[in-house]
Amino acid sequence: xxxxxxxxxxxxTKERVAVVPExxxxxxxxxxxxxxxxxxxxxxxxxxxxxxxxxVDTNAALVYPAVKTRFEELGANPKGSxxxxxxxxxxxxxxK
Length: 96
What we know:
Number of domains: 2
Low-confidence stretches: none
Structural class: mainly alpha
Radius of gyration: 16 Å
Shape: flat
Strand content: under 5%
Oligomer: single chain
Number of strands: 0
Number of helices: 3
Distance between the termini: 39 Å
């Protein structure tokens, strides 16, 4: 696979991105405190036992090597969570 030239000034996440480790973070470039990233969550209105199963299966898929590697190749850092952790994260994002 042929690599493309990188011309980014910085990434907006608080940590460097594994797929482009040579690109500094915004904080390293002189703008501390910025942490902007994409995230995804499942929001469903269904019985609690179904939600629990979706949660378990999703978290299991995110650590499956082929899935984890593909996300990382795209510059993402796959991370599962519990329902409570997602709720807390969502609240913190809304508060921002």
